[in-house]
Amino acid sequence: MTYCVGLCLEDGLVMLSDTRTNAGVDNISTFSKMFTATAPDERMLCLLSAGNLAITQSAWNRLQEGIAFDGTTHTLFTVPSMFQAARLVGEAIREVYRADGPTLSAQNIGFDVSVLLGGQIAGGPMRLYLVYAAGNFIEATPDNPFLQIGELKYGKPILDRALAFDTSLEDGVKLALISMDSTLRSNLTVGLPLDLLVSRQGTQTIALQRRISDEDPYLRLVRDGWSAALREAWQAMPPPPWMES
Amino acid sequence: MTYCVGLCLEDGLVMLSDTRTNAGVDNISTFSKMFTATAPDERMLCLLSAGNLAITQSAWNRLQEGIAFDGTTHTLFTVPSMFQAARLVGEAIREVYRADGPTLSAQNIGFDVSVLLGGQIAGGPMRLYLVYAAGNFIEATPDNPFLQIGELKYGKPILDRALAFDTSLEDGVKLALISMDSTLRSNLTVGLPLDLLVSRQGTQTIALQRRISDEDPYLRLVRDGWSAALREAWQAMPPPPWMES
């Protein structure tokens, strides 16, 4: 399993993923699920992937080698807009589907892949897309500034309650880490270390890219601090008035 | 969909369920998913059900009419222990499976049902079981004092973090309501009003049974108070040290 979350905020982009892959719970590994394509000041694109590792790696390699697309061969370094980048990622997934889908299907293996694509290309807005296994996609909007893939439910309530388009990048990083921590605690197949990327609006540059391990003092502070804060919060609530004590 | 949670704590039992049923998102209704069988001071049993409403209602009716079991006919009022009550619930589900399973299967409808059974029969311990569609079951223990059925992921992180066997009944009710509220916010097919039941250890009696509506002042306090407390908690955390401001 996997948990990846992307936030497309007024001030910029936050992308966070775990690194655990598993083929059964008795076969777990660490693979980065974060891929970037950057030409500083011109474009900054970041992909997070969930699903079958063979599919996501094949799609990423195809993207690097170039995809036949609109009569020419494109990579994430040549597409002129984020919308075209999302189409390109969808096309890469469809190429894998054409190549591997029939055999996977014959062996009763689902074509399981989804990708978060966030970034900005000079002259255009910052955007965040969720590309599905069919190669189609949706986009985050100010009304719904985050998108998730993989094991999304454990970490969704905090984002539903707390995140808004005008949340600062610093608070966005905090909330993404809290959301991830809830998932790490409840699903063993989502695991540390984490990959974090932050890009500020209008810079087309990576402001921060960091591998966060179990020993990271800030991650520990978030984990322990959040548990303590929740405990204080529910303990401070008055008891239900319907119960005689 | 449905969300039901049961807590089997040192001091007693807390059972909480939503009441929404749906056949597609364009056809939602309110049905209680809580059933009780009580003989005050002698036995107090409470069932919460999730899954196909026709299956759960059929199972409940069969339990009331009596199930052929160990050479005689039993109901929840005649079984001698909670373990036998869980076996009886499992047998009721298997009766429905024998009656309806083949036709459901022929029409490609899954046999989707699960039941939380909590309670106490005089002379025995308080117990909480989760009965599966196959009629087999697991039991809550002090290490894992809560069980959930239905849409369980949204509401699990708070219970994972905060609930322990020695949590008081009052705090258990609070935490169950917070867990339910996280689910209500994130899944439209889980809906108000709620059904709550509390039974104190050793009493074999219902201490509290309450229908909780959207207008309930305490539910509102929990919902608003929890959102505010979470906001304060993450806002009070220091910003990530890796980010230049």
Automatic annotation (TrEMBL), chains A, B:
<protein>
    <submittedName>
        <fullName>Putative proteasome-type protease</fullName>
    </submittedName>
</protein>
<keyword id="KW-0645">Protease</keyword>
<keyword id="KW-0378">Hydrolase</keyword>
<keyword id="KW-0647">Proteasome</keyword>
<dbReference type="GO" id="GO:0000502">
    <property type="term" value="C:proteasome complex"/>
</dbReference>
<dbReference type="InterPro" id="IPR029055">
    <property type="entry name" value="Ntn_hydrolases_N"/>
</dbReference>
<dbReference type="GO" id="GO:0008233">
    <property type="term" value="F:peptidase activity"/>
</dbReference>
<dbReference type="GO" id="GO:0006508">
    <property type="term" value="P:proteolysis"/>
</dbReference>
<dbReference type="InterPro" id="IPR016545">
    <property type="entry name" value="UCP009120_prtse"/>
</dbReference>
